[in-house]
Write a structure and sequence with these properties.
Length: about 150
């Protein structure tokens, strides 16, 4: 028979992991619960920068470009819209209903020194891509070192 060292914290960590897994599997995420009560949804976005521009991509499946409004006020970008159902089905006839219909809105803070009046938006395959050029003073500058 071998002697093994007892490590009480190892058992606590595994208990915590088990509780975390139980909570994740048992409960619905709050954003999904809010959607059931008519709250606005928040579409997922990616925002990244290049030396010349800032690019914002929003996933808007099933939304027509005419149903989306994009505004830039100061340093805040707001994307609003609405998804509409195409079929009339009675509530009691649904077996599952996971698609969300209704208004959505998302606001994010943009980095400073952008030329919002020159922003361009494209919509392809349910992905809204907004490209906002940087002002000249915000673009990175390379300073060459002179030797003497």
């Amino acid at each position: 028979m071998s002697i093994t060292r007892w490590e009480p914290f190892r058992e606590l960590v595994s208990l915590r992991q088990a509780m975390d897994r139980l909570m994740e599997e048992s409960f619905v995420r709050p954003s999904r619960i809010l959607g059931l009560f008519g709250e606005e949804a928040h579409p997922p976005i990616d925002m990244y920068q290049t030396p010349n521009e800032v690019v914002v991509k929003a996933t808007l499946p099933g939304v027509k470009p005419d149903d989306v409004d994009i505004t830039i006020t100061g340093d805040t970008l707001t994307i609003k819209g609405e998804t509409k159902t195409t079929e009339e089905v009675k509530w009691e006839d649904y077996l599952y209903q996971e698609h969300r219909y209704g208004a959505f809105s998302r606001s994010v803070t943009l980095p400073p020194a952008l030329l919002s009046e020159k922003a361009e938006a494209t919509f392809e395959n349910g992905i809204l891509t907004l490209t906002i050029p940087r002002a000249e003073e915000a673009k990175p500058k390379t300073i060459k070192i002179e030797t003497k």
